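Researcher: Next entry in the queue.
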Amino acid sequence: MIIKISNLSEGVHKFIFAEAVENIGLVEDFTGNIKADVELSKAPSQIILKVNLSVMAKFVCDRCALDIMPILTNSYKMVYLYGSPPEENDSLNLVYIHTDTDRINISSDVRDYAILAIPMKKLCKEDCKGLCYKCGQNLNERECGCTQSVDIRWQPLLEIKKKLDNIN
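Model: Structure for this entry, 168 residues:
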């Protein structure tokens, strides 16, 4: 995913990239193509990139163990300044480039932001009920016949709840 900037006029330019996930180093958990919609704003002293990306992933639901293939999306903004960098530069989204730079490679940034789009909890749906811890039945499909026993440590709280329910 290389953008040639040497012949671009000042102003806003749009690019659309579609690249196989393997070509940018996304092998595990990703499948198909990664799509990046890029808006490049070029000025005399800087280039601002706004990137929206989407990619299909293949996960196993953390609650019910079903295979899922969600489309992950993420966006980021990157600023490229012409000139040499100062001694201390803590900004992650600010890159200094030479004035004679003729292209920008966004592949590694797109890969990094695709990885950041992976959710902490991979769920088939927000209200996934998961599996019965006794028999393993997928509770999204149907209820199981297991009796749900309550940990005795919660019993005092259940008694208080019963009393409150009787009052109301």
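Model: The mean pLDDT is 88.
Researcher: Noted, moving on.
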